[in-house]
Protein 1
Amino acid sequence: MKEKYTYTIYACYLGYIVQAIINNLPPLLFLTFQQEFQISIEKIGLLITVNFGVQIVVDFLAARYVDRIGYRTSVIAAHICSVSGLIGLGILPGIMEHSYVGLIIAMTFNAIGGGLIEVLVSPIVEAAPSSKAKEAAMSLLHSFYCWGHVLVVVMSTVGFRLLGMENWYILPIIWSIVPFVNIYLFLKVPIRTLVEEEERMPAGHLLRMRMFWLLFALMVCAGASEQGMSQWASLFAEEGLKQSKMMGDLLGPCFFAVLMGCSRMFYGKFGERIDLRKFMVGSGILCVASYLLAVLMKNPMFALCGCGLCGLSVGIMWPGTFSMSAKLCPQGGTMMFALLALAGDLGCAAGPGVVSLVSEHLPAYGLKAGLAAAIVFPGVMVFLLLCNRRKNEKYYQ
């Protein structure tokens, strides 16, 4: 039975690569958007907010309706939206009178697809029969987001080099092939329901649990800590550290994604032997240090090391919180995963949003001021984990 679900797991891995494309291809083009369409950094920040803001709405709606619609129909719809959004990103800004509106429309379709993928892929893997520990399997699953991020940066950098930046619009259309292929896989693979309807915890019961709101807050901090650096790493390397486009992408977001993937692969392999809470506390402290390194170092290479270490530090935050949730509330079902995805996307919008807002109001310091402000998110995560360590110690083992 486990072998029958092998391709289900592979389709989920590819689903996270699709989400990595959606979230990380546009940031590679932010400087191009600024120059070609005369868009301010504030409007660039709004694109990020639209992406994760729409994902938040999708997460909320998915919590109510996905179980009724079914996993298969929902995940296929997610990939159709992803294909539409990526093709739209390449075409709409060039044919519409207001290019910025074209970008907003494309980002909206991408966000719908990404939001549904985030809600659905984790419970599909959680429900599939597996010989691996679920915490390790979840961390391995989330590592494919990182390898997708690396793939997007490296292949797009090669593409920009071969095609020329003036032909950037071809790349999103090429990337749309990935979600198109995954539509076929999800049409064929077996999919189990995480929790049968009669066993699901009522929404009201879940929302009254104090522990659920702790997990919700941890997910907000995880999303903000990750995307606060990830969404701005390319622009920070190019504009703030005066690196070329190619070097900025490879040493900024690519280095970040490689180390984030390594962190998740490490926990995927050795997770059964590691105290999850201590690992997450240590990661939060390292995250604060990495933001400080990026902000305070005048030497560009040391600052870029801060970007990379941030990826290493945030790697466990998102899958680790999901794993805690599965232990604490095994009957939470799709509702719980959807609400936690909503929390994560709130953080994904809040982190880059804070960076953008602070950078706009402190132009003398630019992105460094914004990244300094984002330190509050990993700091709050460490505080919450330390405050709750005694009461809930058994759940972190």
Protein 2
Amino acid sequence: MSSEDITIRVGNLSKCYHIYDRSHDRLKQYIIPRLQRLTGRQSKNYYREFWALKDVSFNVKKGETVGIIGRNGSGKSTMLQIICGTLTQTSGTVKTCGRVAALLELGSGFNPEFTGRENVYLNGALLGLSKEEIDFRFDDIATFADIGEFIDQPVKTYSSGMYVRLAFAVSACVDPDILIVDEALAVGDTKFQAKCFRHFETLVARGTTILFVTHSTEQVVRHCDWAILLDKGQIIMRGHSRDVVNAYLDMLFGVERNRQTDSAPFGNDLQLTKKVHDIYRDEEDNFENRSGYNPYEYRWGSREAEIFDFCVTSGSSRHTTYIETGQIVVITIWVRFMRQAGLPIYGLTIKTPDGITLFGSNSRDFDNGPLLLTANQGSIYKVSFILQEQRLGAGEYLVSVGVAEEKAGEIFPLDRRYDAICLHVANCLSRSAGLADFSMNVEVTAAL
């Protein structure tokens, strides 16, 4: 990667805040350490340090869209504010190349007493545009914001949706070299979000670099070239969007990933009784050998239970991953338990290859549920997910399966196999297009 290709350079970026337990400690900190240093004594601090960011480093190339995800308080907004220049780092460096436009907080940079029109000119000036340049772009901005006559009303009268419409329109329509969006689109409606992402594609085609913070993991998978996972002010993972999103989703359950168990699955020394063998069959651990297995699956969990085989049937008793729209599909998994599990939950999710969730449910939340059955140590359970009204459109899909345990209202993953099974769907019922087939009828009658 040449230096000319990089538009954002972040090196060992850190930000420390001083936390005072009592209000008068702030005054003590201002006076007493100075007196102690003047008298040759060791100074004492009256605050605690909180590192919102700690040694964060990454580079972003021109024209890339990068997703930044993490739990609340992980340092995402702090990092973006430093990159934009609205916050000063404690240490480290940030270098950006070109004009930076940002949507950091709802209505940030807007004067509530000014009209929308006046705020367009104010924000344009802050971004370095002349009045003539803003005049040239104003109609495009107003059209994109689509707030009608409110453009000439004070923004303090705006709804949250109108705020973000105008703010995004200004930031996106001034041809920025770098666009930074921090959760702003979350308050927009579905139509406006779709409009924004279409504009993202236009900006990227022009060479704009986009940093995108959101809690919508599907948006990250679908729209970002790669992603960064932050936690407690540090980069936990960076790389392919799907891999980073999977790690983030697992983090939300509050269970640390066990690298030792991921690399060396449990169960090799487990002595199964003849009765347990009879429940299944002689073969074991066939998951990876089944047709339709995706070797790029993302798998993790405590592995105190293990999904070791699967089978897909549709219209016959033989395993197949080629199915037709409208057919009943049964996806079966076999789960081996290394210890007793009081309330195991078995789940299934179907997604498109670019991460759009089409369906997801589990043995606790399905229509006829919950189905709760204690699993004993050393036992094997056959779990069948029966899709009665399967209306997938023609195409390829990825199936995720998992087993977890609920304790005191929290979910603890035992074995999760994300994107583990590939399904190929043929639509022989109709010539409809799309992800789903609704078996549409058309009626035409003369109105007069």
